[in-house]
Structures are given as C-alpha cells and as structure tokens.
Design brief:
CATH topology: Aminopeptidase
Protein name: Acetyltransferase (GNAT) family protein
Keywords: Transferase
Number of domains: 1
InterPro entries: Acyl_CoA_acyltransferase, GNAT_dom
Structural class: alpha+beta
Distance between the termini: 18 Å
Strand order of the largest sheet: 1-2-3-4-5-7-6
Number of helices: 5
Number of strands: 7
Helix content: 10-25%
Order of helices and strands: EHHHEEEHEHEE
Radius of gyration: 15 Å
CATH architecture: 3-Layer(aba) Sandwich
Pfam families: Acetyltransf_1
GO molecular function, one term: acyltransferase activity, transferring groups other than amino-acyl groups
Length: 158
C-alpha cells in the first residue's frame, strides 16, 4: 500500500520538520525545512508525508524567480528538495516525485511545467529526477557551489 502523499505545509508538521537532519555532503546541495519555512507570496512549502508523519520537504515557486529557469509563464520552480536522513533509502523520494505531476495538476491547475536546478556533482538527485520524468534542458546556471543543470518536466495526466 502506497501511503506517501504530498501536502501543503501545516502548523502540525512543524515539530517534525524542525528535527530533520542531513549529512554535510547532502546539506551543501539543499536546505533544511526549518531554514526556509517562512511563507511568502509565490513560495509554497510542500511536505512529503508517510502515513501522517513528514519525511521530506520541498518548495514550489510561482514567483518571478521562475523566470531565471524557464520562459514558460506556466512553469513552477522546485527547490530545497530533501528527505530527512533518518528516512532515506526507503523509496520516499522517488514515490513523492512520481506524485508531483498529479499534485501540481490538482493544486496548481494553471501550471503545465516543473523546472529545477541540480548541481552537477549531485549525481543521486540527477538520477532520481530522470527516473521520474525530468529531462536535462542543456541549459546551465552557476549556483553557490558550482554549475547546475536545468531540468524540466511537463505536467501531464498520469
């Protein structure tokens, strides 16, 4: 039975999100939820939930920041994707990303594309994103710790 779901952040998620931990080699590629949880216009915190417990987190942006990654006015930017270190290796990241397209279609119906930037050294993340339908656009950006690949996925019925 698949009990992974994607949910908008709620106050009852806060205590568990505060306890998230990532090893240093992962933390350099993303941010912990507690560091980026403040809600602002155009930034939507999304919690990956297993049963009723948060196990992961990411942000979806529909702000002007998206324009740095896509010319599509109907694109969302995915950032800060992470799975709590204690919950890694259980398939949660893949299951969550497989649900992303339908989640966006349901919760953000006017959007038809998801774009992200992944560091060229972050091979596990690149492989995950490819497995779930993202493709490398060939575009590159220089991020805080080096070159980033710009990847996109069309939002389709699955």
């Amino acid at each position: 039975m698949d009990t992974i779901s994607l949910r908008h952040f709620e106050k009852n998620h806060l205590e568990i999100l505060k306890s998230f931990h990532l090893p240093a080699e992962q933390k350099k590629f993303t941010a912990l939820p507690i560091d980026i949880l403040e809600e602002t216009e155009g930034k939507h915190p999304i919690v990956i939930v297993y049963g009723d417990a948060p196990v992961g987190f990411f942000l979806l942006h529909n702000s002007n920041r998206v324009k740095e990654y896509s010319a599509n006015p109907h694109a969302l930017l995915l950032t800060a994707f992470s799975i709590n270190h204690l919950e890694q290796g259980k398939g949660f990241a893949k299951k969550a990303m497989q649900k992303l397209s339908n989640f966006v279609k349901s919760e953000f119906p006017s959007y038809n594309e998801i774009v992200l930037a992944v560091n060229y050294k972050n091979i596990p993340a690149q492989e995950l994103y490819r497995k779930v339908g993202f493709y490398d656009t060939g575009e590159r950006k220089i991020g805080p710790i080096g070159e980033q690949y710009i990847m996109k996925m069309k939002v389709e019925d699955k």
